[in-house]
Amino acid sequence: MDYGAKIAMYKLVILIESFPEWQKLDERWPEFLHISEEMPGLRREATSQVLEFLFGNKIYVRMHELFFDSEADLRAAMASPPGQAAGRMLQQITYGNMVLFIAEHQEDDLDH
Question: What's the pTM?
Fold first, then answer.
């Protein structure tokens, strides 16, 4: 996929669903971030707290994105010891109430 974008990366996207005690997620979130930040090849990350749904299913409370230069780098990071540890912790702190997917990410200037 090429839409003339200047920056292309791959990202692992984590969508965390609402669950009865999802606020407890905040207690262990810094620990998850610390582990995930040790993944090899990680270029940057972003966390978004969902404030309001304007349309569609209202099930997600948080989105976290981990950015890598290539799909191979992303997959290697997931298979690494820190990646495996972060995955286990994520399962624990969300009780499995999440969706994970890999996406190709492209950014562009508005005047492009």
Answer: 0.87
